[in-house]
Backbone:
């Protein structure tokens, strides 16, 4: 399997270095300004154009877990979003499988394991699984304002149905979040509505 082959379910990673004077989320939390993570910083699971495909060695420590998400039954079902306490994409994928493969709850951050706490938080988004010749959903970016984290997407006009089922997973590195309760939102840009929201707690010590 090659990570850049998008039709079988590649990964999207968004890095939160998006402003000229970027500060980690731990500093930003409580700031009323909206921080936007642009589209060109996002890796995604569809053939949406203009995305960075350089994964490097990101999968070497989680290849089995990634394969289960990509070609296994894990990841089927309705849209979802939650936080994973992770310092790497590998950690985030392992944490994702604990939710989509093992049924862990998401009222608080998911940990990839119980051995150690991580510094950062990653947003995980799953929009669904569809067979199509083109992307069923288009990621538009991520917005962070105070304790609200919004994933913005759009749904293009229906394309010809294909024979390959594509899973639309997204992993977004948010940096170190301050402790507290966060509102996670899926926002449909076309309809201008929040389609899913969840309250997640970030503990004082992860």
Residues:
């Amino acid at each position: 399997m090659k990570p850049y082959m998008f039709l079988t379910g590649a990964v999207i990673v968004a890095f939160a270095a998006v402003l000229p004077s970027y500060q980690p989320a731990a500093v930003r939390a409580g700031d009323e300004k909206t921080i936007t993570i642009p589209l060109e910083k996002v890796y995604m699971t569809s053939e949406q154009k203009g995305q960075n495909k350089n994964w490097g060695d990101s999968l070497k420590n989680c290849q089995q877990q990634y394969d289960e998400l990509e070609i296994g039954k894990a990841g089927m079902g309705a849209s979802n979003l939650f936080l994973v306490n992770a310092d790497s994409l590998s950690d985030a994928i392992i944490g994702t499988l604990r939710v989509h493969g093992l049924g862990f709850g998401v009222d608080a951050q998911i940990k990839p394991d119980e051995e150690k706490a991580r510094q950062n938080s990653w947003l995980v988004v799953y929009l669904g699984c569809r067979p199509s010749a083109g992307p069923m959903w288009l990621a538009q970016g991520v917005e962070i304002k105070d304790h609200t984290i919004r994933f913005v997407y759009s749904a293009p006009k229906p394309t010809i149905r294909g024979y390959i089922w594509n899973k639309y997973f997204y992993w977004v590195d948010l940096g170190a979040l301050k402790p507290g309760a966060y509102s996670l939102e899926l926002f449909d840009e076309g309809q201008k509505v929040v389609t899913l929201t969840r309250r997640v707690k970030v503990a004082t010590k992860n």
Remarks:
- Confidence is low (pLDDT under 50) at residues 1-30.
- Residues 153 and 188 are 5 Å apart (CA to CA).
